[in-house]
Amino acid sequence: MEIIVMNRRIRSPLARVIAAGNPPRLLILAAIVVALFDVAATLAFPVLTRDLIDHLGTTGTGAALTSPQLVLLVCVLVGGALCGAASAYMLARAGLSILHRTQRRLFESVADRPVAFFDGQESGALVSRITGDTRVIAQLLTNGISGLVTGSLLLVGSVVVLALLDGPLTAMIFAIVIGTFVLMVPMVMRLAAINKAINGHTADVGAALTRVFSGIRLVKAFTAEPMERDRIAAHLAHGELAGRRLAKVQATLSPANGLAITAALILLFTYGTARVAAGTLSAGTLTAFILYIFNIIAPLIHLSRFISQYRMAQGAAEPLADLLQAPTPSRAVATPVRWSSTDAGDLVLEDVRFGYGDDPVLTVDRLVIPAGARTAIVGASGSGKSTLLALLERFYAPQHGRILCGGVDISQIDLTVWRQAIGYVPQTPTLVSGTIRDNIVYGAHDIDEPRLLAAAAAANCLEFVDRLPGGLDAAVGENGVLLSGGQRQRIALARLFYRDPVILLLDEATASLDEANGQLVMQSFQRLMEGRTTVIVTHQLGMLRDLDRLYTVVGGRLVETDLGATRPVVRETLAAAS
């Protein structure tokens, strides 16, 4: 896939991720310009030191503190340090900006994917990609590029100054340093591949830990701690092996750098001392050469580090670019029709076919769900009842046929508008970490306190909320762990009362409740269903009061049952479906 940015085609994964981060170019450029002053100070430092030493050699050390050479040297060092600090701060700000923008774009892209995308993903791996791999890209664009530019200039400047000071000595030292750098490049390339593998193992560990911690009650209930320990240990062992390979390469690089510096220094001291003794080289020039050696070695290390960062960023960018590339955006409607909840009419399914993969799950030739009526769907587990609700919610799209609401194909309605008209209650309600208040108003942009209290009362929440420390501001815990099942379900109902949808989808909404909580929830449901188009999936007779239509799923097909307003028919239908 290629993306057009500023009339340019961007094909590489790294380029697409960089474009998503929208780097603050002016800030990065300013940081590099300021860093150039630091480079200039670094280049001037050995020469100024040479002049100071040669000056003191002729005048003595008595006037050292008042010599203009010392004053100039101190000013250059302080100025360079200040420029270096300013450049580092600007690069840090640029890195944080890139990181924030890239992570935000990634989250928006991933969150906008259809539900089917998440069915095949590990949530922990997604978290690791968005939070970890993006940092690699940000480091390349800030420290990596800055190190490349300043290091290259420092290297070229140092070589030029050394050549002007003494050409033969420069050639000898440069040959040793360049030879070492050439030997280092293959090892640096290996570093990139190893770091890519480590990033993959880190994502695997994150996915495994997320699975364990999110299902910790299941783990403990089935005494699966030893099994999970072994799984986590296996993931960590793979990461450790990759870390050992990384350590071996790094352990080789450090001595190589040290040997290059040592060899250059030995050569410089041996040859340079002889030149000083012969009177063909001043002591100040020899000192400058010693200092410039470090000005050559440091840039080469920066260049090798940039190569490593670039390769690491390439590896990290591949999965990130896939996440940014959304081939089927869940909200994309080329020209959405004008539609609002007031336009909601009969729900009609025409010649609908759907399956997961190649296996057909649901076949509907024609189904009419009257507006404002209560329609129940019953059938054996796995028969496709919940799939029907998922199609109405537009978690999935039919592979054949269409679904209409008031004569309008729902696939042509803006997804946000459509879902705002729907209230969905699953068998196990989902609560977000936070307070009861946060969960009741979840998804709403504005909070209306009277409406909030009315919703809580209508859902029979105040009966237990008033007893909790903090009331509506009491914490619910992760996934509502601090509340009972009945309390969680009533909060989910209060959320619907606050949302006030025109269409209700109830998926076994009371199946997991005891009799007392079930009755309270049932009362709330009866109030909630009044005047709303309601689709009920259930095995419980109590949910089938005052039905308008009843359908049974048999072999993946819907068959209408003639209620005749007789309760025995409903009971027999439920028994047969079970």
Quick rundown:
Helix content is 62%, strand content 11%. It is α/β, with parallel strands linked by helices and 578 residues long. The strands form three sheets. Strands 8-9-10-5-11-12 form a six-stranded mixed β-sheet, with helices on both faces. A four-stranded antiparallel β-sheet has the order 4-3-6-7, covered by helices on one side.
Describe the model.
- There is one protein chain.
- This protein is of the alpha/beta class.
- The protein folds into two domains: 322 residues, ABC transporter type 1, transmembrane domain (ABC transporter transmembrane region fold, Up-down Bundle); 237 residues, P-loop containing nucleotide triphosphate hydrolases (Rossmann fold, 3-Layer(aba) Sandwich), CATH 3.40.50.300.
- 62% of the residues lie in helices and 11% in strands.
- The chain is built from 17 helices and twelve strands.
- Strands 8-9-10-5-11-12 form a six-stranded mixed beta sheet, sandwiched between helices. The chain has a four-stranded antiparallel beta sheet with strand order 4-3-6-7, with helices on one face.
- A hairpin with a 2-residue loop joins strand 3 and strand 4.
- The N terminus is likely disordered.
